[in-house]
């Protein structure tokens, strides 16, 4: 699991970020948190997944790159909109991976 830098955090997660990051990294129960990740496949720009999905034993987490976290699905969608908007403003396209890596 890779925690991206920069990392986008919803207002409702900011006070508990360190604890949530620890719990998510160690596959502990943490209901009500949604993660923004780069897609596991080649299609799409971002995925929003419930953090509970990571409790599944065989969920592929080795290459999972987490770029943001929201306390609700609505907050996670808002963060995704912010990331896309910043990317388009800075690059003129929606290549979030390149934007996040500074390319």
Describe this structure in words.
With about 100 residues, this protein is α+β, with helices and mostly antiparallel strands. About 35% of the residues lie in helices and about 20% in strands. The chain is built from 3 helices and 4 strands, in the order βαβββαα. It has a 4-stranded mixed sheet with strand order 1-4-2-3, covered by helices on one side. The model has no long low-confidence stretch (mean pLDDT about 90).
Count of DSSP H/I helices: 3
* Largest sheet features: 4 strands, mixed
* Spatial ordering of strands, largest sheet: 1-4-2-3
> Which regions have little confidence, pLDDT < 50, spanning 5+ residues?
none
Rg value: 13 Å
Q: Let me know the number of strands.
A: 4
Average pLDDT figure: 88
Q: Layout of SSEs?
A:
Blueprint: E1 2-9, H1 17-25, E2 34-37, E3 47-50, E4 65-70, H2 73-91, H3 96-101
Parallel strand pairs: 1-4
Antiparallel strand pairs: 2-3, 2-4
Summarize, please.
The protein is α+β, with helices and mostly antiparallel strands. Helices cover 33% and strands 21% of the residues.
Properties at a glance:
single chain; 103 residues; alpha+beta; 3 helices; 4 strands; 33% helix; 21% strand
